[in-house]
Design goal:
- The chain contains 6 helices and 10 strands; from the N terminus they run ααβαββαβαβββββαβ.
- It is an alpha+beta fold.
- It has one domain: endopeptidase fold (from Nostoc punctiforme) (Alpha-Beta Complex), CATH 3.90.1720.
- Helix 3 packs across helix 4.
- It is elongated.
- The N and C termini lie far apart (140 Å).
- The relative contact order is 0.13.
């Protein structure tokens, strides 16, 4: 009888232990399962901020003829031992101005030259300058304009320019003619005749490219001559 009661108590104890173990296992499993995120609950990574840069504004358009003038300028600087930046494009074929042997009745080229020159009104003066990027001196301005307008080379210095052109009287001046100032033997200044007894020129230090009357006090006293340096071609 005693043995039967003891076995009964042992069975009850084992059953209780098994139930407790089952409950513990169930609780442990529930805890593990609750820590696993379902695909639907997975966190979505926020998209990175856009790295696109704002569209840059197009640079202002430049006069396409300036690049050819720059090439002519670079060639002159190289020939004369002056430091210069390399030309922006491959060097174009250079043409030497072919002078006409009789006065030209076609003034269209002179109008083109003056029209181009007017674009640089207000450009600062710079001794030795032959580019709008740096400024002009008087002959550098004329030299630059023949390259920019006609894609042709002319001499760089005033005395040489005068020798290449055909002398014209002041009373016969036409738009585009070159006017020279200085003395009978040396030209110290040059400009381009624009009509109405006026000329456009790179003046002097502290003063920009401007239009001046031939009879202004300084230039009336120093006017020497004028030449017509007509370019080749139309």
């Amino acid at each position: 009888m005693a043995d039967s009661a003891g076995r009964s108590r042992l069975s009850s104890s084992l059953l209780a232990i098994m139930q407790a173990s089952a409950c513990l296992s169930f609780a442990l499993a529930a805890t593990l399962l609750s820590g696993v995120a379902s695909p639907a609950m997975a966190q979505v990574k926020a998209p990175a901020k856009s790295t696109l840069k704002p569209i840059a504004k197009a640079p202002p358009q430049t006069d396409p003829s300036d690049s050819i003038a720059d090439q002519l300028n670079a060639k002159w600087q190289k020939e004369n031992g002056v430091a210069a930046e390399p030309p922006r494009k491959e060097e174009a074929r250079l043409q030497t101005v072919s002078l006409q042997q009789s006065p030209s009745t076609n003034t269209q080229w002179g109008e083109r030259l003056v029209s181009h020159a007017r674009k640089y009104l207000g450009t600062p003066y710079r001794h030795g300058g032959i580019s709008p990027a740096t400024g002009f001196d008087c002959s550098g301005f004329v030299y630059y304009l023949y390259g920019a307008t006609f894609q042709q080379r002319i001499p760089r210095m005033p005395n040489d320019m005068a020798r290449e052109g055909m002398v014209v009287a002041r009373s016969d001046l036409k738009t585009g003619d070159l006017v020279f100032f200085g003395s009978a033997t040396t030209f110290t200044h040059v400009g381009i005749y624009v009509g109405n007894d006026s000329f456009i020129h790179a003046t002097h230090k502290g003063s920009p490219v401007q239009i001046t009357h031939l009879d202004s006090d300084y230039y009336r006293q120093r006017y020497v001559t004028a030449v017509r340096l007509a370019p080749s071609g139309p």
